[in-house]
Write a structure and sequence with these properties.
The protein is α/β, with parallel strands linked by helices and 234 residues long. It has a single domain, classed as Alpha-Beta Barrel (TIM Barrel). Helix 1 runs parallel beside helix 3. It has nine helices and nine strands.
Length: 234
Protein backbone atom coordinates (compact mmCIF):
# COMPACT_ATOMS: atom_id res chain seq x y z
CA UNK A 1 0.00 0.00 0.00
CA UNK A 2 1.47 3.31 -1.11
CA UNK A 3 0.72 6.43 0.95
CA UNK A 4 0.48 9.89 -0.59
CA UNK A 5 0.74 12.83 1.79
CA UNK A 6 -2.26 14.83 0.54
CA UNK A 7 -1.17 18.46 0.11
CA UNK A 8 1.79 17.44 2.25
CA UNK A 9 -0.47 15.79 4.87
CA UNK A 10 -2.55 18.87 5.63
CA UNK A 11 -3.65 17.80 9.11
CA UNK A 12 -0.04 17.85 10.24
CA UNK A 13 0.66 21.45 9.19
CA UNK A 14 -0.24 24.22 6.71
CA UNK A 15 -1.19 22.52 3.46
CA UNK A 16 1.02 22.72 0.38
CA UNK A 17 3.88 24.36 2.27
CA UNK A 18 7.55 23.42 2.41
CA UNK A 19 7.37 22.91 6.16
CA UNK A 20 4.54 20.39 6.01
CA UNK A 21 6.02 18.59 3.02
CA UNK A 22 9.32 18.24 4.87
CA UNK A 23 7.46 16.90 7.91
CA UNK A 24 5.71 14.30 5.73
CA UNK A 25 9.03 13.17 4.31
CA UNK A 26 10.49 12.87 7.80
CA UNK A 27 7.43 10.83 8.83
CA UNK A 28 8.10 8.34 6.02
CA UNK A 29 5.64 9.29 3.27
CA UNK A 30 5.98 7.25 0.07
CA UNK A 31 4.77 10.18 -2.02
CA UNK A 32 3.96 13.86 -1.71
CA UNK A 33 0.83 15.20 -3.41
CA UNK A 34 0.71 18.90 -4.22
CA UNK A 35 -1.45 21.22 -6.31
CA UNK A 36 -0.15 23.75 -8.82
CA UNK A 37 -1.76 26.83 -10.31
CA UNK A 38 -0.33 28.70 -13.29
CA UNK A 39 0.05 32.42 -12.64
CA UNK A 40 2.12 35.04 -14.42
CA UNK A 41 4.37 32.46 -16.02
CA UNK A 42 5.10 30.57 -12.78
CA UNK A 43 3.65 27.50 -11.08
CA UNK A 44 2.49 28.22 -7.53
CA UNK A 45 1.86 25.37 -5.10
CA UNK A 46 -1.66 26.21 -3.95
CA UNK A 47 -4.99 24.41 -4.02
CA UNK A 48 -7.68 27.12 -4.17
CA UNK A 49 -8.21 29.81 -6.75
CA UNK A 50 -8.98 32.13 -3.83
CA UNK A 51 -6.78 33.00 -0.86
CA UNK A 52 -8.90 33.24 2.27
CA UNK A 53 -8.98 29.58 3.32
CA UNK A 54 -5.23 28.94 3.44
CA UNK A 55 -3.54 32.36 3.71
CA UNK A 56 -4.00 35.76 5.31
CA UNK A 57 -4.78 37.20 1.87
CA UNK A 58 -8.14 38.03 0.33
CA UNK A 59 -9.77 37.61 -3.03
CA UNK A 60 -8.71 35.63 -6.06
CA UNK A 61 -5.14 34.47 -6.44
CA UNK A 62 -5.19 35.69 -10.04
CA UNK A 63 -5.89 39.27 -8.89
CA UNK A 64 -2.52 39.54 -7.13
CA UNK A 65 1.04 39.80 -8.38
CA UNK A 66 3.57 37.07 -7.69
CA UNK A 67 5.37 39.43 -5.32
CA UNK A 68 2.18 40.10 -3.34
CA UNK A 69 1.36 36.40 -3.14
CA UNK A 70 4.82 35.50 -1.90
CA UNK A 71 4.47 37.99 0.95
CA UNK A 72 1.35 36.27 2.31
CA UNK A 73 1.37 33.99 5.33
CA UNK A 74 0.24 30.51 4.26
CA UNK A 75 0.23 29.33 7.89
CA UNK A 76 2.82 29.40 10.66
CA UNK A 77 4.87 31.91 8.73
CA UNK A 78 5.11 29.77 5.61
CA UNK A 79 4.93 31.21 2.10
CA UNK A 80 3.11 29.92 -0.96
CA UNK A 81 5.91 27.91 -2.60
CA UNK A 82 7.02 27.84 -6.20
CA UNK A 83 6.95 24.36 -7.68
CA UNK A 84 10.71 24.50 -8.15
CA UNK A 85 11.15 24.80 -4.38
CA UNK A 86 9.15 21.64 -3.78
CA UNK A 87 11.00 19.71 -6.47
CA UNK A 88 14.34 20.61 -4.94
CA UNK A 89 13.15 19.88 -1.39
CA UNK A 90 11.76 16.43 -2.19
CA UNK A 91 14.28 15.43 -4.85
CA UNK A 92 14.49 11.64 -5.06
CA UNK A 93 13.26 11.06 -1.49
CA UNK A 94 9.69 10.33 -2.56
CA UNK A 95 7.37 10.31 -5.54
CA UNK A 96 5.96 13.76 -6.26
CA UNK A 97 2.36 13.82 -7.45
CA UNK A 98 1.71 17.17 -9.12
CA UNK A 99 -1.98 17.90 -9.61
CA UNK A 100 -2.68 20.44 -12.36
CA UNK A 101 -5.36 22.78 -10.97
CA UNK A 102 -5.55 25.45 -13.67
CA UNK A 103 -5.45 26.03 -17.40
CA UNK A 104 -1.92 26.57 -18.65
CA UNK A 105 -0.31 24.54 -15.88
CA UNK A 106 0.55 21.68 -18.24
CA UNK A 107 2.53 23.89 -20.60
CA UNK A 108 4.48 25.59 -17.82
CA UNK A 109 5.29 22.26 -16.20
CA UNK A 110 6.50 20.80 -19.47
CA UNK A 111 8.82 23.77 -20.02
CA UNK A 112 10.13 23.57 -16.45
CA UNK A 113 10.98 19.88 -16.80
CA UNK A 114 13.11 20.59 -19.84
CA UNK A 115 15.54 22.46 -17.63
CA UNK A 116 18.67 20.51 -16.81
CA UNK A 117 18.20 20.82 -13.04
CA UNK A 118 14.80 19.08 -13.12
CA UNK A 119 15.20 16.47 -15.86
CA UNK A 120 16.62 13.84 -13.43
CA UNK A 121 13.46 14.12 -11.33
CA UNK A 122 11.06 13.19 -14.14
CA UNK A 123 11.20 9.47 -13.36
CA UNK A 124 9.88 10.16 -9.86
CA UNK A 125 6.97 12.35 -10.93
CA UNK A 126 3.28 11.57 -11.30
CA UNK A 127 1.24 14.31 -12.98
CA UNK A 128 -2.51 14.18 -12.41
CA UNK A 129 -5.62 16.23 -13.04
CA UNK A 130 -9.39 16.17 -13.39
CA UNK A 131 -8.82 18.16 -16.61
CA UNK A 132 -8.36 15.68 -19.47
CA UNK A 133 -7.28 18.40 -21.89
CA UNK A 134 -4.46 19.62 -19.64
CA UNK A 135 -3.29 16.03 -19.13
CA UNK A 136 -3.29 15.41 -22.88
CA UNK A 137 -1.31 18.59 -23.51
CA UNK A 138 1.23 17.55 -20.93
CA UNK A 139 1.42 14.03 -22.37
CA UNK A 140 2.19 15.41 -25.81
CA UNK A 141 5.08 17.46 -24.41
CA UNK A 142 6.40 14.99 -21.81
CA UNK A 143 5.43 11.45 -22.85
CA UNK A 144 8.03 10.00 -20.47
CA UNK A 145 6.33 11.28 -17.28
CA UNK A 146 3.69 9.12 -15.56
CA UNK A 147 0.08 10.36 -15.74
CA UNK A 148 -2.81 9.87 -13.34
CA UNK A 149 -6.44 10.65 -14.09
CA UNK A 150 -8.58 11.99 -11.24
CA UNK A 151 -12.22 10.96 -11.28
CA UNK A 152 -15.19 11.87 -9.10
CA UNK A 153 -18.52 10.18 -9.60
CA UNK A 154 -19.87 7.13 -11.40
CA UNK A 155 -18.00 5.84 -14.45
CA UNK A 156 -20.01 4.20 -17.23
CA UNK A 157 -17.13 3.45 -19.60
CA UNK A 158 -13.50 3.49 -18.49
CA UNK A 159 -12.13 3.24 -22.02
CA UNK A 160 -14.26 6.19 -23.17
CA UNK A 161 -13.06 8.31 -20.28
CA UNK A 162 -9.40 7.45 -20.80
CA UNK A 163 -9.52 8.11 -24.55
CA UNK A 164 -6.07 8.96 -25.94
CA UNK A 165 -4.46 9.35 -22.53
CA UNK A 166 -1.66 6.92 -21.74
CA UNK A 167 -2.18 6.57 -18.01
CA UNK A 168 -0.23 4.84 -15.31
CA UNK A 169 -2.85 5.32 -12.60
CA UNK A 170 -6.48 6.06 -11.86
CA UNK A 171 -7.33 8.23 -8.84
CA UNK A 172 -10.80 7.58 -7.45
CA UNK A 173 -12.85 9.25 -4.73
CA UNK A 174 -13.59 7.27 -1.58
CA UNK A 175 -17.22 8.34 -2.10
CA UNK A 176 -17.47 6.34 -5.34
CA UNK A 177 -15.55 3.11 -4.78
CA UNK A 178 -16.63 0.77 -7.59
CA UNK A 179 -15.21 -2.75 -7.28
CA UNK A 180 -15.89 -3.48 -10.94
CA UNK A 181 -14.14 -0.31 -12.08
CA UNK A 182 -11.13 -1.08 -9.92
CA UNK A 183 -10.90 -4.60 -11.35
CA UNK A 184 -11.17 -3.25 -14.90
CA UNK A 185 -8.47 -0.66 -14.26
CA UNK A 186 -6.18 -3.34 -12.84
CA UNK A 187 -6.79 -5.54 -15.89
CA UNK A 188 -5.61 -2.64 -18.03
CA UNK A 189 -2.39 -2.41 -16.03
CA UNK A 190 -3.32 0.75 -14.15
CA UNK A 191 -2.46 1.47 -10.54
CA UNK A 192 -5.53 2.50 -8.52
CA UNK A 193 -5.28 5.13 -5.79
CA UNK A 194 -8.12 6.33 -3.55
CA UNK A 195 -8.59 9.83 -2.13
CA UNK A 196 -8.95 10.83 0.70
CA UNK A 197 -8.53 8.11 3.35
CA UNK A 198 -7.94 9.02 7.00
CA UNK A 199 -9.07 5.90 8.87
CA UNK A 200 -6.84 2.85 9.32
CA UNK A 201 -9.97 0.67 9.42
CA UNK A 202 -10.57 1.37 5.71
CA UNK A 203 -7.18 0.17 4.52
CA UNK A 204 -7.53 -3.60 4.78
CA UNK A 205 -10.64 -3.71 2.60
CA UNK A 206 -9.06 -1.40 0.04
CA UNK A 207 -5.98 -3.58 -0.12
CA UNK A 208 -8.10 -6.72 -0.55
CA UNK A 209 -9.91 -5.28 -3.59
CA UNK A 210 -6.67 -4.38 -5.31
CA UNK A 211 -6.17 -0.73 -4.40
CA UNK A 212 -2.49 0.18 -4.69
CA UNK A 213 -2.41 3.26 -2.51
CA UNK A 214 -4.28 6.07 -0.83
CA UNK A 215 -4.09 9.81 -0.36
CA UNK A 216 -4.26 10.85 3.27
CA UNK A 217 -4.29 14.08 5.27
CA UNK A 218 -2.32 12.70 8.22
CA UNK A 219 1.00 10.94 8.62
CA UNK A 220 -0.42 8.87 11.48
CA UNK A 221 -2.33 6.79 8.92
CA UNK A 222 0.70 5.25 7.26
CA UNK A 223 2.62 5.03 10.52
CA UNK A 224 -0.23 3.14 12.22
CA UNK A 225 -0.69 0.85 9.19
CA UNK A 226 2.98 -0.06 9.09
CA UNK A 227 3.02 -0.70 12.81
CA UNK A 228 -0.05 -2.94 12.62
CA UNK A 229 1.47 -4.91 9.74
CA UNK A 230 5.03 -4.88 11.14
CA UNK A 231 6.29 -3.05 8.07
CA UNK A 232 9.44 -0.90 8.05
CA UNK A 233 9.11 2.86 7.69
CA UNK A 234 9.69 4.12 4.14
Amino acid sequence: MKFFAHRGALRDGPENTLMTIDMALAAGADAIEIDVIAHQGRLLVHHDLSLERTTNGEGLLAAHSIRELRQLDAGLGQRIPFLEEVLLLVGHRATINIELKSKGAAGLLAVLLQQKAYQPLKSGLLVSSFDHVELLRFQQSCPDVALGLLLYGTVLSLSAIIGPLKLSSLHLSDEFIDYGLIAEAKQQGLEVYIYTINQVSQLKTLQEIGVDGVFTDCSALWQDWREINCLPMA
